[in-house]
Amino acid sequence: MNFQMCAFRKPFVLLVFTVFCANIFAYQFLENPKSTYNELNISYNSYYDVKEINPKVINNLFTVKKNKYHYNVFYGLNLFVQTPSDFRGHYVVHDMYGIIGINFTYAICEKWQVNFLPLYHESSHYVDGLLKSSSRPDSLKNTFTDEELDGISQECIILNFGYKASGKIAYYFGGGYYYHTTGRELNYFLRTATDYNFYKKFWLSGDLSYIDEDYGNSLGISSSVTYKIGNGRVGLFYSNKRGLGRDYKDFQNKIGIQLVYAP
Q1: Contact 184, 248 (CB under 8 A)
Q2: Contact 62, 101 (CB under 8 A)
């Protein structure tokens, strides 16, 4: 199936479909683009035909941990850097994405967990390195478009559930509603996934999401195979989804190496 061509007008039908797909794509919550983990992805982006480095850094401003619940206020930065073909020369920042959020996690019982974020802010910021990008058309090498100057900003409320069926497999599902957006008219998103542990410390991962927005509804998919080392994981990943920032109108295929720190 070509997910780039998928556009569903009936969310209920899609929800049934995504729940079904949770049993096809193995997942661990690290694949959630709104996760609060630190990660570094080095990949080939076939849409722009460039190599890309994507560091994501999250810092906790305030944290409270008890037996059954975890509360924290966090902020972070997500950079999308396009590299020269031979990794020599100017590394351009294609997009700079700011993150601010509030997170509550509560263990309902041994198997069930609920995660609630009353605020998750994302904003795409102005970067002059974009003009030097090798993937940028020559006609735009000296000027920004109106959309790029306006930028992207959005806030949403998110509710996620996690169910640990056993020591080797867990299921996740949830979604979010956008109560404020600028530059990109997002309405809501749905997400479903599973997390499968195999052969000791290996994890098979994937994420299937549905996004409803005025520009057009879409499906996004991510998957990875990682090896757990202490509080981190290293492995290979693949994703097919719209860009997060000013490039949200374009579907991007990425494949590469993933490093994640998830305490």
Answers
A1: yes
A2: no
Q: How far is Cα 161 from Cα 106, in angstroms, rounded to an integer? A: 10
Contact 229/203 with Cβ under 8 angstroms? no
CA angle 37, 40, 41 (to 5 degrees): 120
> In the structure encoding, which two tokens stand for residue 259, read together?
């490093």
* Residue-wise DSSP of 69-120: EEEEEEEEEEEEEEEPTTS-S--EEEEEEEEEEEEEEEE-SSSEEEEEEEEE
Q: Are strands 186-198 and 202-213 parallel, antiparallel or unpaired?
A: antiparallel
Q: Cα–Cα distance between 81 and 132 in angstroms, integer? A: 11
Contact between residue 54 and residue 40 where contact means Cβ atoms under 8 Å apart: yes
Find residue 206's DSSP bridge partners: 223
How many other C-beta atoms lie within 10 A of the C-beta of residue 29? 21
Does residue 132 sit in helix, strand or coil?
helix
Predicted TM-score (pTM) of the model is 0.80
Q: Under a CB-based contact definition with an 8 Å cutoff, are residues 216 and 7 in contact?
A: yes
Q: Which of 259, 116, 120 is nearest to 181 (CA)?
A: 120
189-215 residues labelled b (16+ CB within 10 A) or e (exposed): bbbbbbbbbeeeeebbbbbbbbbbbee
Helix (H) or strand (E) holding 199: none
* pLDDT digit string, tens, across residues 79-136: 989 888 888 878 888 888 899 999 999 999 889 999 999 999 999 876 766 676 667 7
Rounded-to-integer distance, Cα 72 and Cα 60, Å: 7
Q: Is the pLDDT of residue 1 over 50?
A: no
DSSP β-ladder status, 251-261 and 169-182:
unpaired
Coil vs helix vs strand at 20: helix
